[in-house]
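Lecture notes, unit on protein representations.

Consider one protein chain, 847 amino acids long.
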Amino acid sequence: MSLALDFTSPAPASAADRVTLFADVILPLPLPRLYTYRVPYELNDNVVIGGRVIVQFGAKKTLSCIVAAVHEQAPKDYQAKYILEFIDDAPVVTQPQLKLFRWMADYYMCTLGEVINAALPSALKLSSESRIQLHPAFSREENEYPLTAQEEQILDALGTLEESKALTFTEVGELLGVASFHKVIKSLMHKEAIFLFEHTADKYSPKVLKKVRLAHHFVNEASLEMLFNTLTSKPKQLDVLMKYLQRVPVYQNEHANHAGMEKAALTSSPHLSPSAVNTLIKNGVLEQFDQIVSRFPLEDEPTAQLHFTLSEAQTAARDEILNHFGEKDIVLLHGVTGAGKTEIYIDLIRKALEGGGQVLYLLPEIALTAQIVTRLLRVFGSRLGVYHSKFSDNERVEVWNGVLSGRFQVVIGVRSAVFLPFDDLSLIIVDEEHESSYKQYDPAPRYNAREVALMMGNFQGAKTLLGSATPAVETYYQAQQGRYGLVSLTKRFGEAGMPEIELIDTRKQREAKTMHNHFSAELLGEIERKLGAKEQVILFQNRRGYAPVVACQDCGWIPKCTNCAVSLSYHKHSHELRCHYCGYHDPMVSKCPCCGSRAVKTVGFGTEKIEDDLKIMLPQANVQRMDLDTTRAKNAYQQIIGDFEKQNTNVLVGTQMVTKGLDFANVSLVGIINADSIIHYPDFRAHERAYQMFVQVSGRAGRKGKKGKVLIQTADPQQVIFDKVIRNDYLEFYNYEIMQRREHGYPPFMRVIKMTVKHMEQGLCEQAAIFLTQELVERLGRTAVLGPEAPYIFRIRNFFIQEITIKLDRAHTVLKHAKQQILDAIDACKDQKEFKQARFVADVDPM
């Protein structure tokens, strides 16, 4: 699926020559090729590679798309339509980005349109369903720009809307009675009269500060003296005025009054009357006004340098990294948990910025950004941008534009940050590079941000540093082979030592009847001792909810999801049964619908049950939970982590979110409640994931000088993996795992592509999978194709699922040829009438 892009801009035509230009554009749709549109002659000089244009696609739909190439060749197969409007005078997508996006489409077997759709924030994608709304700060009376008749018509229509206060692009076209109206919308946006947003996203609601200022006719000594005399009999209003004048020096600087002060500073003061503030506004003494500020709070923070000195081991590691960078583009920093990798990252970022380049710092989880952003902000101030999915779409646009303009030289973000418009990267840091969170599962492109970062560095000539205490087997193999530089940090920073790890045999505990719910006597006693010493505890349970299963004790009935082949989990907080795959939910039942028995009990336990039990057994403890259910709100991560850092929380119960790089000074105990559920999983990476998870969560204990302790509850303490975890012996784990991978033909020795076939009818799903397998075997050979087979969860969201595993040689030419053969096999399936409704998904390098 090679998509050739021409990155050269067209040469300007002379006045005597009428040159007809055509533009190849990338539509944000899963289309196999680019579409060509004709450039209106009068706009020949306006066309910009990487800029957005508005085009008509199909009979009625209009879309914004990205210009990928400009040329003079008309399409042969169809009559090129004209581009309707040009949105941008400068590129919003850079040429290095276009090159990277093309590689992603080829490598991950998807279309360039799917990559663009994933890459661009919604506010940069316009369509006939895009909407406009009045800017809340716009006033026609104070507007300094003249309005055209069409602009007045649009503003009149928006002003009469009561409920939605928005118009779609289609409605704007109908209102004006013209097909080409995008210039009018662009002009209104320039005049800050309207906002634009996508129907799929939240409405654009700017961050507005309510402010007040002294009415301008009082800003002189005589008028102010008269005002004081007037308010002598109204002490509450006088107090408000005096407070304002203390904060805003109108005598020394009359321009300061124009900026005013936040109204909340007056109304929330315990010594001032809010009604007095409002009375002064009503009487015209104070003027209330709105000030729109950036959604991105970091730009207003002062740059206060955080000075720290690298330890001898950190300095040696930093120097070794730089030496490797002299010969290699990629270096792996293998440092034990708590070794101080972040300080090394900061030092390297400083050096990169001194050289004038940009830096991308990737993290696997939003939860990590809450801690690390605070540290980086103190070093890099307003040069730092943050990019992740909890930001609103418009906040992401601000960061996107900040990278384009050069305002943000350092960006810290999760996997989607690889899409940002960098064009002068000098350093990429991928922290916790082993994490599966870097992998995008749905929708396409199903990319791994670590691999994309490596290719981005290759395209832009940047150096890439991969950091982890438990590197991915594939990454460590590349370092062992000499393709990557390898630097090791084997000791924790400062006085901190590695935690003491103990196994607790829950089978013996149950036989001795010393288990308290799901807590062994040792774990519960250790928690109490740590709380008595004013120290904190992290408990890890890799399942959310209150209980994974609800069952009737008499007839064995278990509630199942109507859309997926899974049982419903009980969530006590909402008192409902919920599917963790599709979100389906039912009220909790008290009586079995099959036999009528009231013996309906919960079986098993999740994070919510652990939290609930602890609150009963240890009522003196402040327990908080961090999982998908408690972190849905925008700032929930920061709130939970902030409470724990301030020691408002004693015990933090969580899923794998608590395993990933969090740094808490007062945590001296980590408990892994049920280790067995992590180990026993039908996947070739199961032991690797288990080892990484155990080591990472253990690493949260004893990071700042206190001796940490880790208690692992298991019914099978003889498992080989526990010995490697206890001795923190990554190399022994790696040697065993690489031997298994070599013997059975898995990465890094082979490339794996997983094909998934989905259909709403089980029989047709199985038939389509068999047909696709036959097509693949014909093209690739029997030894390369495994399956088809139904996965453990064989139905999700009403679609039955069959999976086929393809193993391929790592050679680039072989891989490229094989991918084309796979796409041809999929096309052959789609040509069969009975499989028209089937879905075929290719996942390259599945996790």
